Amino acid sequence: MDNYYNSPILARLLKINYHTDCRVKEKKLKKGEVFGEHSGPISVLKWSDKKIVSMISTYHGAEMKTESKGQKIKTKPISVIDYNRFMGGVDLKDQLLQSYLIERKRNTKWYMKVFRRLLNTAVLNSMVIYQANTGKK
């Protein structure tokens, strides 16, 4: 779950009433430090990397795991590793389009913003289909 769509009350409600776990992705911390609190089935965790990342989870605790990418070794919370591994299509789309957004251009007409957003999505979808069919980037 994203920062905009979560709260401790919602996490508790989903866990107790529907047996559904949730995960979200902002105290001053130095790089690599972790701060976490637990209340029943809910864990709230802050971790400092390039930015401070806040997480609320009913599935993970404050466990850390060491990852190596090439020669770089980083210690990350397991909730961040799982979020990155299972990141949904919307987050991936936003990440891929971030540097190419044409809807950022100022325009007072709402329908132009909608058109530009749909155009961005269509171009990204065509790129994904092209890569899947040809194997080329």
From TrEMBL:
InterPro entries to which the protein is assigned, alphabetical: PGBD
Record-annotated PiggyBac transposable element-derived protein domain positions: 26-127
PANTHER family registered for this protein in UniProt: PIGGYBAC TRANSPOSABLE ELEMENT-DERIVED PROTEIN 4 (PTHR46599)
Name of the protein this chain belongs to: PiggyBac transposable element-derived protein domain-containing protein
A Pfam family recorded for this sequence: DDE_Tnp_1_7
Domain of life: Eukaryota
